[in-house]
Amino acid sequence: MKLAIYDMDRTITRTGTYTPFLIHAALARAPWRLLFLPLVLGSMLAYAIKLITRARLKEVNQRLLLGAHITRSQLEPVTASFAERTYTLNTLPGALRRLAEDRAAGYRLVLATASYRLYVGAIAARLGMDDVIATNSIIGIDARITAKIDGENCYGPAKLRMVQTWMEQQGLARGECHIRFYSDHASDAPVMAWADEAFATTPSPRMRALATKRGWPILDFRH
Predict the structure, then answer these.
(1) Strands, DSSP E only, in the chain?
(2) Is the predicted pLDDT of residue 223 greater than 90, yes or no?
(3) What is the domain partition of the chain in residue ranges?
(4) 2-219 homologous superfamily
C-alpha cells in the first residue's frame, strides 16, 4: 500500500482555514456573531502568551462564532460553500499538481490536519482525498456537533498517534506501507521523521531549517 499523507493549512492551502471558516459560517448563519471578533482576537493573544492551549483556543473561537452546538443539516450548506471557496481561491497550484501526480502513481491520498473534521471533510472531498484524519468534535446524543474537541487535537505528536491509530483501524501494517508525508510546519516533525519520504512544502522558516538539517526535500507549491 502506498500512502501520500498531506497536511492541509499552508501545505495545500495558501493560508490557514479555521478562523476564515468560522467567519464564513458566522456571515452565512448569524452575522451578529461578528461582534465577538474582538474576543476572538483576545483568545488568540491568550494562546500566544500561553494562557490557554491550542485546543482550548479552537473551542473558544468556535463557540463565539459558530455557537455552542450546531446540527449537521445546518452545517452542510456552510461547509459546502466554504470548501468551494477554499478550492477556488485558497489552494496552492503546486499542491494540486502533486496530488494529481500521487494519485496517478497509485497512492492513497490522506489528509491529516489539525483543523476540525466538521468542515475539513467537505474540503477533502473537493480535493479528491481518499481519507481524512482530523480533529474531531464531540457529538451529543441529539446528534448536534458541539464546540468541544473529541479526543486529541490533531497537532504535533498527537498527529502521528492519530495517523497510526487510523492505520490500525484500516488494517494497514506499517511495514507493508510506503508512506510519503507533506507539510509546511515544524510541528509535523514527528510524522516527517516516521514517514519513508518527507517533503517540506513551501516551508516556514523553522521547517526550512529543519528540512535542511534532516535532508528532507523542499518543494515550493506556490507555482
Answers:
(1) 2-6, 69-70, 108-116, 131-139, 145-150, 178-183, 197-201, 218-219
(2) no
(3) 2-219
(4) HAD superfamily/HAD-like (3.40.50.1000)
What are the pLDDT digits (tens) for 182-216?
999 999 999 999 999 999 999 999 999 999 999 99
Report which of 116, 144, 145, 133 is spatially closest to residue 58, judged by C-alpha positions.
Answer: 116
Dmax (CA) of the chain: 52
The alpha-carbon radius of gyration of the chain (Å, integer) is: 17
| Res 141: pLDDT | 63
The whole-number pLDDT of residue 139 equals 82
Q: Is there a contact between 5 and 179 (Cβ–Cβ < 8 Å)?
A: yes
Are residues 181 and 197 in contact, defined by beta-carbon separation less than 8 angstroms?
A: yes
Residue 40: closest CA among 26, 29, 28:
26
Contacts for 49 with CB less than 8 Å, ≥ 6 apart = none
Single out the residue of 96, 115, 107 nearest to residue 8, CA to CA: 115
Give residue 71's Cα distance to chain centre.
21
pTM for this one?
0.93
Contact 138, 150 (CB under 8 A): yes
Distance CA 121, CA 76 (A): 10
| Strands annotated E in 96-219 | 108-116, 131-139, 145-150, 178-183, 197-201, 218-219
Check pLDDT > 80 for residue 140: no
Mean pLDDT of the chain: 95
